[in-house]
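[job 4417] fold queue: 2 targets
>>> target A
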Amino acid sequence: MIEKHIVLEDIDPVMFYGIGNQHLQMMRALYPKLRIVARDNVIRVLGDEEQMASFEEATERMRQHVLRFNALREEDILDIVKGHRTKDEVPEGVVCYSMSGRAIKARSENQQRLIDAYAENDMVFAVGPAGTGKTYLSIALAVKALKEKTAKRIILSRPAVEAGEKLGFLPGDMKDKIDPYLQPLYDALEDMLPQVKLQDMMDKHVIQIAPLAFMRGRTLSDAVVILDEAQNTTPQQIRMFLTRMGWNTKMIITGDMTQIDLPRTQKSGLVEALQILSGVEGIGIVELNRKDIVRHKLVTRIVNAYERFDKNNNSNESINKD
């Protein structure tokens, strides 16, 4: 008889063991010659050497399954123990899985172009109206890189610009003041990573979320770096951000040209950057449009209505000037 300790790294043990330890009980039934005891993220196994080797291999496959799909079902455990592929392993084109087990993948041609541009370039600009999945898909690509260990950390940033409102004094410490601007990034991460694991990664600075102003002076290496709402950067800010790029780093810059919240006299840094960097080798530019909107159907209608309104206003302004 031999004894081994198996450590469940990078996953939530509760998801692995199942509700009320149902998965653990199932594993004990499948490996009757082993004594299996679990505590926190460590499994202590005692028993037959042959079954021990099989259990170790199956446990690692189950751990990888949880890491990739954010789920583990009883049928998955049976498939893995029998040496079969699980149902989740069959689909292609999936970036990662949400906490509910939903496959996160391209839902339009331009979203697929964003995924392809990320694979082919070290820096990608994704520009389009609200609801086209720019931020969500970008964060999914970053989470995938972290899980596959092609990046050591994720760095998410946004300019702290008020959307047409003057919020005045905000109570609390620095984190309390900036968190409201960064909440959409937290929301996306919480949809893709277990809450306990996400908090642990943030505590260890594996995932960092910070306003754009905090990027000055840093060199960002071994990371996927995302700048969201880049239309609200000034030319000086976006230039500063883009030059933070270090070794083994990928950058994704997202923005919506129709929602610039800067003062009218201030030029958007994103507009200028796209003009300057168009055609530069290693930089991909993907333009999404209203056909790529994946939110409620009313969002598409709203975007269309505002586009018509803007066109009419521009036409009237031209006539009045003449």
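>>> target B
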Amino acid sequence: MTERTRRIGMLRRMVPEGRSSRATAEGAPRPAEARGGRPRRRGAQPKVVALGGGMGLSASLAALRRITGDLTAVVTVADDGGSSGRLRDELGVLPPGDLRKALAALCGDDEWGQTWARVIQHRFQSKGDLHEHAVGNLLIVALWEQLGDHVQALDLVGKLLGAHGRVLPMSAVPLELQALVRGHDPERPEDVDTVRGQANVALTPGEVQSVHLVPNDPPAVPEAVAAVLDADWVVLGPGSWFSSVIPHLLVPELLDALMATKARKVLSLNLAPQPGETEGFSPQRHLEVLGRHAPKLALDVVLADEAAVPDRDSLTEAAERLGAAVELAPVARTDGTPRHDPELLAAAYDRIFRMHGRIGPWR
């Protein structure tokens, strides 16, 4: 028995009684329709865990908080740019920026929630050391230093904000994202170089071949693993594919939990390729890249905006290789920008949660 197999078994034993795995590390993904759903008591809301980082995760959270009160965000901690990078370098802390954005997205639409959302997102403008630091970043780091506990501090910030959900880091140690990139140097278009740092990976002019984390076997936050194991649905994406979405699959304990959980999994695709990181990517290529990084991970649903899918057949084939069905829905804003509309995205998630494997209404 391999160490990974033993770890999978241990994770399964952590799942509350009555739950079992639908996708294992030892078997290939099975079609979504062949995997049974789990009954929910009438009136219950789905337990949803959303994985990601940056503005993509914020869009997903702003939608999900509209349809469930049992929501947990698991956030990447590999950011090394801007205010987060400066705090990370100076204090040796986790980068707080993506955690802050997730908390802001979970703020309510009332005056209290929107006021606090603006406050924690506010950036100082000065000629001194505070320039471009976000208030929320400083608040989070201050509580980390005061309490000595990442999770407790984030829970306290969420309580202050009245956040509609919980925010957790995917790992308790700062991570460095590294990528193998072909053509990172335009003068050497065929050479493959190692590009270090999330900010550099996101902006590379070359073609990202693969990404990995340093350290390469980082520990997952136990509360994040427990949330995945106890979820009804896990939502992955949208967001920067190589720097926000895939990194969660590179944390072994988190990937093991994703394969051990009975939760159904939906992957939300971006509305357009990201300049630099995924320039020229088709929707199906996003799936192929994700599959290469986690070849034994099964999905249930791939959600995409109909207008962003020029070749439905190719996307369907790519999704089926991951065990998933494709759901097309209008989820983009109507202003022409490649941004998700929270109300439309909420409606799409709600329909998926109700149609795929549920028994009885959630609410």
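[job 4417] complete. Note on B: The first helix runs from residue 3 to 14.
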